[in-house]
Design goal:
This protein has four helices and no strands. With about 130 residues, the chain is mostly helical. It has one domain. Helix 3 packs across helix 4.
Length: about 130
């Protein structure tokens, strides 16, 4: 059976989003591991950990969303929001498992909202970078 152009487009978009999320997660894991090594061998103040973690999240999302938008060539806001939400969900599960438990509070809710907004903004910016 032949696929319609819409079905191919949707499947292509889903594959692009999946690849973008996985790329973002991989970059995050590598950068967090690198940062952990730096913390281990250098005297990094505790106050630096949160900002560096946020910077790692921004870099990871930017690269992943850029890949998605490069393939999709449109809908940067929507694709960015989706990547941001999926990225948060998967990274929350991975790091929760690594820490030995999952907890959810108001800070997590705020982080979900901010990650989604950040994803949308990065998506909008990425559409204009790709053009």
């Amino acid at each position: 059976m032949l696929e319609s152009g819409v079905d191919k487009s949707k499947r292509s978009n889903v594959l692009a989003i999946t690849g973008g999320v996985l790329c973002s997660i991989a970059i995050t894991l590598v950068l967090i591991l690198l940062f952990a090594v730096i913390i281990r061998f250098f005297n990094v103040p505790d106050a630096a950990i949160f900002p560096v973690n946020q910077l790692i999240k921004i870099i990871s999302l930017f690269v992943g969303i850029l890949l998605v938008v490069k393939k999709a060539k449109s809908k940067g806001l929507v694709n960015g929001l989706i990547v941001g939400l999926l990225y948060y969900a998967i990274s929350y599960l991975i790091f929760g498992i690594l820490q030995g438990g999952l907890t959810f509070g108001i800070n997590n809710l705020l982080d979900i909202i901010l990650t989604a907004i950040m994803g949308g903004i990065i998506g909008l910016i990425s559409v204009h970078i790709i053009k």
